[in-house]
């Protein structure tokens, strides 16, 4: 019996991505020093919840956490997928936190995945489920994933602090992704969006839309922002409202921006107490997000700043073929992703800046990832 | 004035040269005089076992939504706000703008 050799890592940075890459590359990892110096040391509830989710969709994986949660041993198993799974994501992070690694993992599963995720659907920290629908999932098309099998249904919405939202995600499996050359961002031809509110008046939605339109109408006539008013059990447990905007370009790129306003996460520090009394007016939020979207459009690149990490990851998981993509300024998360990819998959990107418009062109040869466990039907 | 323009251009191009090094960390520790560190101050020290490239402060400068990057927490969401009040400056990124200019990109 061979003794398992663990890859030793330190710290809590980008834990979910490390676990994702460890699973895909079949690398057992041992992570030490997880928040050892903090008042509340160890793994956070959402990180534990993510580990449980991994356990649910994988077979034969092994997870060991020490008593204080500062040390984690993880031996990946085989990604199984499966139908009618249910997972409670808790309320410390939004469902977006779980979806990001999950959509990559599920593609390399044995069976197609359909899972019901409960928790916070919209918050200000993670990409909202609307953004996943409008931007993230369509991105998979470029890598050869058939979008007709990709479904994300928002059953009910939930905002912090108490959540209560629910989504159903269905994803197919792939044999392998296909390498891309995706450098033309095109011009913005339309702007779409969804504004929603839970447990507050539907006027909030209209106010956000009106102010957002006020910004866009100077640039583009084709602006449609839909409303999604939820009430009763479909509105979750907490009041809040938010908006998600997406710009589509002539080359089929989607650039997104979203935010949610609510009374903050449970157990957050007291500096938010002041804000708890009053939420910012919806007019301001609508306008703010419109300018955030313009900011992303101004950056250039085929994806927005939020999706850089996922884009690099998908490129690195392609067959041994050259991929070429263009993004705006590299984000800290994007940079961490590049380092993690090099660490686990041994894929190094060639990064070149394009000084003429401030974008960055990245080239890489994929790691040649092939889904060996996929079941043929 | 005119002499400043070429200087600015050169500064920008020089900053971009080291992107590979920014990300993967170069073996040679060539300190570029053009890199600015001002954004690094607000970084928490809890991720100090990672190599912190010098120029990265520039990238963190943009106004991120409430603390999206202030801690080592695991956030992929990143927002760049459009600070310029003159929306005409990005008209060429829209179909209503100048298509020939956009083709040059």
Automatic annotation (TrEMBL), chain A:
One protein family per Pfam: RTC
Compartment(s): Nucleus, Nucleolus
GO terms for biological process, alphabetical: endonucleolytic cleavage of tricistronic rRNA transcript (SSU-rRNA, 5.8S rRNA, LSU-rRNA)
Keyword tags: Nucleus, Ribosome biogenesis
Gene Ontology cellular-component terms listed: nucleolus
Ranges where the RNA 3'-terminal phosphate cyclase insert domain occurs: 183-297
One term of GO molecular function: RNA endonuclease activity
Span of domain RNA 3'-terminal phosphate cyclase: 9-351
Database matches in Gene3D superfamilies: RNA 3'-terminal phosphate cyclase domain, RNA 3'-terminal phosphate cyclase, insert domain
Main location: nucleus
InterPro entries to which the protein is assigned, alphabetical: RNA3'-term_phos_cycl_insert, RNA3'_phos_cyclase_dom, RNA3'_phos_cyclase_dom_sf, RNA3'_term_phos_cyc, RNA3'_term_phos_cyc_type_2, RNA3'_term_phos_cycl-like_CS, RNA3'P_cycl/enolpyr_Trfase_a/b, RPTC_insert
Family: Belongs to the RNA 3'-terminal cyclase family. Type 2 subfamily.
Name recorded for this polypeptide: Probable RNA 3'-terminal phosphate cyclase-like protein
Organism: Cucurbita maxima
UniProt lineage: Eukaryota, Viridiplantae, Streptophyta, Embryophyta, Tracheophyta
């Amino acid at each position: 019996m061979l003794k398992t050799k663990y890859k030793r890592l330190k710290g809590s940075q980008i834990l979910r991505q490390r676990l994702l890459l460890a699973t895909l590359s079949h690398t057992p990892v041992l992570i030490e020093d997880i928040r050892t110096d903090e008042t509340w040391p160890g793994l956070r509830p959402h990180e534990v919840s993510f580990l449980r989710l991994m356990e649910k969709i994988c077979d034969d994986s092994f997870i060991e956490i020490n008593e204080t949660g500062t040390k984690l041993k993880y031996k990946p198993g085989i990604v199984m997928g499966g139908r009618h799974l249910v997972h409670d994501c808790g309320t410390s992070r939004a469902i977006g936190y779980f979806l990001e690694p999950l959509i990559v993992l599920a593609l390399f599963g044995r069976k197609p995945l359909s899972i019901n995720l409960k928790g916070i659907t919209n918050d200000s920290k993670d990409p909202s489920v609307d953004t996943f629908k409008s931007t993230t999932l369509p991105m998979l098309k470029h890598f050869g994933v058939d979008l007709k099998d990709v479904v994300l249904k928002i059953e009910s919405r939930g905002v912090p602090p108490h959540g209560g939202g629910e989504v159903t995600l269905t994803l197919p499996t792939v044999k392998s992704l296909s390498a891309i050359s995706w450098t033309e961002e095109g011009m913005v031809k339309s702007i779409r969006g969804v504004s929603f509110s839970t447990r507050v008046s539907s006027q909030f939605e209209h106010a956000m839309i009106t102010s957002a339109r006020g910004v866009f109408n100077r640039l583009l006539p084709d602006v449609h922002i839909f409303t999604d008013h939820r009430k009763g059990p479909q509105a979750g447990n907490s009041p809040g409202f938010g908006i998600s905007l997406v710009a589509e370009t002539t080359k089929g790129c989607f650039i997104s921006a979203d935010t949610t306003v609510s009374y903050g996460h449970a157990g957050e520090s007291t500096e938010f107490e002041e804000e708890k009394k009053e939420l910012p007016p919806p007019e301001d939020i609508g306008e703010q997000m419109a300018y955030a979207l313009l900011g992303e459009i101004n950056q250039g690149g085929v994806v927005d700043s939020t999706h850089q990490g996922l884009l690099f990851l998908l490129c690195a998981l392609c067959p041994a073929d050259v991929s070429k993509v263009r993004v705006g300024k590299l984000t800290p998360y994007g940079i961490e992703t590049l380092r993690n990819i090099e660490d686990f998959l041994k894929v190094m990107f060639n990064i070149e800046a394009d000084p003429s418009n401030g974008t960055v062109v990245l080239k890489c040869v994929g790691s040649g990832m092939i889904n060996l466990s996929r079941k043929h039907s | 004035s005119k002499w400043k323009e070429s200087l600015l251009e050169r500064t920008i191009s020089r900053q971009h040269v080291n992107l590979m090094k920014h990300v993967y960390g170069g073996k040679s520790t060539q300190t570029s005089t053009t890199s600015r560190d001002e954004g690094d101050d607000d970084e928490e020290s809890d991720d100090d076992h990672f190599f912190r490239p010098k120029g990265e402060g520039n990238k963190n400068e943009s106004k991120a939504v409430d603390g999206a990057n202030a801690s080592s927490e695991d956030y992929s969401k990143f927002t760049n706000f459009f600070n310029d009040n003159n929306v005409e400056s990005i008209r060429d990124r829209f179909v209503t703008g100048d298509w020939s200019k956009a083709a040059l990109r």
